[in-house]
UniProtKB/TrEMBL annotation:
Belongs to the FAD-dependent oxidoreductase 2 family. FRD/SDH subfamily. GO terms for cellular component: plasma membrane. One of its GO terms (molecular function) is flavin adenine dinucleotide binding. This is succinate dehydrogenase. SUPFAM superfamilies: FAD/NAD(P)-binding domain (SSF51905), Succinate dehydrogenase/fumarate reductase flavoprotein C-terminal domain (SSF46977), Succinate dehydrogenase/fumarate reductase flavoprotein, catalytic domain (SSF56425). Its EC number is 1.3.5.1. Its cofactor is FAD. Residues 511-645 form the Fumarate reductase/succinate dehydrogenase flavoprotein-like C-terminal domain. NCBIfam families: PRK07573.1, sdhA_Bsu. Keywords: Cell membrane, Electron transport, FAD, Flavoprotein, Membrane, Oxidoreductase, Transport.
Amino acid sequence: MTEINSKIPQGPLAEKWSNYKAHQKLVNPANKRRLDVIVVGTGLAGASAAASLAEMGFNVLNFCIQDSPRRAHSIAAQGGINAAKNYQNDGDSVYRLFYDTIKGGDYRAREANVYRLAEVSNSIIDQCVAQGVPFAREYGGLLDNRSFGGAQVSRTFYARGQTGQQLLLGAYSALSRQIGLGKVKMYTRHEMLDVVKIDGRARGIIARNLITGKVERFAAHAVVVATGGYVNTFFLSTNAMASNGSAAWQCYKKGAYFANPCMVQIHPTCVPVHGDYQSKLTLMSESLRNDGRIWVPKKLEDAKALQAGTKKGKDIPEADRDYYLERRYPAFGNLVPRDVASRAAKERCDAGFGVNNTGLAVFLDFSDAINRLGKEVVKAKYGNLFDMYEEITNDDPYETPMMIYPALHYSMGGLWVDYELMTSIPGLFAIGEANFSDHGANRLGASALMQGLADGYFVLPYTIQNYLSDQIQVPRFSTDLPEFAEAEKAINARIAKLMGIQGKESVDSIHKKLGHIMWEHIGMARDAKGLEEAIQMLKDLKKEFWTNVHIPGKGDDLNVELEKALRLADFIEIGTLMAHDALDRAESCGGHFRTEHQTEEGEALRHDDKFMYVSCWEYQGEDKDPVMLKEDLNYEFVVPQTRNYKK
């Protein structure tokens, strides 16, 4: 069996990153000018990496699927970014942030990577303040913090309910400076469709110009993928419509391992589905759980009245409300991790206590906070989120409780990377949500922004030098090489095949069918029978897609339906790999919940003796089952134990 080498440095946990940096190979400034790096993606990870690498002297080609880096999906992150500054003096530390992240991920992440993330977290805040990010401040001028799920300290820095947007503007300003200096060449409205390997190393990409439809070739000494996650596989999710897993998936099909694909996160605080014609869902920030209390009625007749519309939430007396998270998890209450809160909401709704007309919603109530703090204080903290909720639902959350329900949000799985953030293809790096590295089986809130910026500003700029140090004698590559021609030919053949089908079903209608299979069989709860059924259903759906999809327009022109079709072809295959991974992992951990593996109280039941590993899937060819390799997780510094948020 192939041995997985994660390149984790030796030595004590707190010294690994320092020791790595002290002994890594460097590239001198004159030689950096001779090296080209492709960065695909301009979210927090991509923009920070492109800006940092250019600042250091490398030549960067940066690719953006949107019309501007400012539209990357990172702007949708609302609640905040974690760091172990301990400004509140409430007991936080680098070790505690590390431990909470490992525990929150249900002991399925690498210790060394997570400790490094916690270690560099404080530098991220300093960097962003220097860029002018308008973090909230206390009366005395210090940066303010709030609490997030899975922690008993306040370590989340925030800019009202638009933290992601403000952080992205900071990264974008750094990136724009490098574009102006000519160190970054920006390609907007370009989508990566393949990675090009020469002698086993990643040496370029094939991208499609989304305005002209032209397929183009780009060469470099190394390629960095920062293209986010793949939860739009589920059709309905909180991700932007353009978010997709195609770049990562094409890397997988070229030989990069795909790790823990079944580990996806369902966020507990989303606006419930309100119709059959929705194309996406809206996230309400987890920060709302600081002051909002989650409840359903205690009496079934009250729930039925709410579902029928004969009663409103404010009509239910306090004594008849079940604050079920506070009841079940007294130590953490409404601030339990996302996977725990999501399953608890599903359990109450499945039992018949849902509060909207579909029975698939619970209340998030701010009446206590408004009475305690005053409406203006609540407005100052969450005003834009309340406005967004009212815009969508036509309901005033200052007067009536919000309704929320879990929805697909984030993928912990992704391209496998070693300690240096390099995939199993030499020269191909993956950062941010595109890799699997830091969150294990469940991501804690406010940790995605932390990881994206940690990878881009403080980790990759070091580790990529270790790879590039012996590449300085390698001349620039011509895109006329046969490897580029072959990759482009394959893409053009794929596009021609899609355009030639001319079936009867729209891309969205097939994607919606995919979403139903994913939610019902590979969603919040999974079992062996359902997963086996899903694998067969997805095979059938793939056949239906490739024989009956209808794509209007032309393949060599502006064509949004073709873009969607190319991504959907990959989503169907990603869904199939997720089902294989979920079936193989016969345990429950974090966001992966197998109904056959739960405690008497309905909590996740891990089997550390059998599944203490990262599942690394290797592509075997079209329509062949993938093969799994294992990276064993050896915990030297923490003792894995059953997660307990009750005491």
